Description:
Blueprint: E1 4-7, E2 11-17, H1 20-36, H2 41-61, E3 68-74, E4 81-88, H3 107-114, E5 117-122, E6 127-134
Antiparallel strand pairs: 1-2, 2-3, 3-4, 4-6, 5-6
Helix pairs in contact: 1-2, 2-3
Amino acid sequence: MKSETTTPTGEFTLRLSATRRGARLARLLAVQQLHDWGVTGSAAEAAELVVAELAGNAVLHGRVPGRDFEVRMRVERGDDHVRIELSDARAERRPSPAERPDEGGYGLLLVTALATTWGVKDRCVGKTVWATVPLTCQKTVTSQSKVS
C-alpha cells in the first residue's frame, strides 16, 4: 500500500493508523511536504500546529479500531492559503471548541486562532474536519504615539 501521494497540482494525501504514532507521523510528514512546497516560517508553523491538533483529535476522538485516518493538504496555484483536511471514521463525534477549557480542550481554540476558517463535513463513513491556514503573515496594526 502506498501511503503518500503528491501531485504537481499541490495536493498531498497521507493515510495512517489511528494511533499516537500515526498522529506524530502526520505532523512530521506534513511539515516535510510544506517545506517541499516552499512554505516556511510562521505560515509553516501555523499549518504544522493545525495538522498536529486535528490529527491528535482524529486519534483521540475519532478512532475506530482497525480504521485509519487520512490527512489531505492542498495549495492551489495563486492561492494564499493551504487547506488542511483530517478524516476519521467517527461521524457521531463532531468537534466543538470548549467554552471553558480546563485540563484540555484548547486545541480547537488554537485552530480557530490560526486558521481563517474551519469546519466539519460528513463523509460516507465518518467525517472530515478541515481548516484553511494563510500562507502569508497577517500584519498586526500597532498604535504608535509620537513623543513631542
